[in-house]
Design a protein that fits this description.
alpha+beta, about 20% strand, single chain
């Protein structure tokens, strides 16, 4: 689902404030995501889980909570605290929604979503000055050279890019199925 379709679907929900107004994000998605509004008419993104989530991150802009429902499932809810960040919140939720589409089990999917949300939090906490530091530029150049001279030819573009671990200060920059490369 494109971000535009996701946004239009969400913003098309009528929030009256008397109760939660939620709809299923996509019936073809393997995880039960719901989008809508809470009783305070805040944007709300919810994932149902069979088990209690281990830990939830905290944010100044996003309220995160997990509550056990009457059917013993857990509702993991992300609510936008500040309305001025609506577009950013929708984009974050769309990313969590779409990037988890390949997860096939509830446990794997919920863990993935919470870990990805934590990565988003770290990214947002760092802020953005518009420039990379000298060491970040060197690291990025090294990764691009490795991709161009080795990984793309050996693994192809999709596998090479999926092997990149991202800017999370891991021991290695790339991991492929049979080996680690730096």
């Amino acid at each position: 689902m494109t971000i535009e379709v996701f946004r239009e679907k969400w913003l098309g929900i009528q929030a009256d404030g008397s109760s939660n107004a939620m709809i299923r994000g996509d019936s073809t998605h393997p995880l039960p995501f719901f989008i809508g509004y809470d009783q305070q008419k805040r944007l709300k993104f919810m994932l149902l889980s069979e088990f209690e989530p281990r830990s939830l991150g905290k944010s100044r802009s996003i309220d995160v909570a997990a509550r056990q429902r009457q059917d013993n499932k857990w509702a993991i809810c992300f609510m936008l605290a500040e309305g001025k960040l609506q577009e950013e919140f929708i984009y974050l939720c769309w990313d969590l929604f779409e990037s988890s589409r390949i997860r096939r089990t509830s446990m794997d999917g919920v863990s993935f979503v919470l870990e990805r949300f934590a990565k988003w939090q770290r990214l947002m906490e760092l802020g953005y000055s518009g420039l990379l530091s000298l060491s970040e530029v060197k690291g990025l150049l090294g990764e691009l050279i490795f991709l161009a001279r080795y990984a793309l030819g050996r693994y192809g573009a999709v596998v090479a890019l999926q092997g990149w671990l991202g800017p999370d200060k891991a021991d290695r920059d790339f991991v492929f199925s049979a080996s680690w490369s730096q």
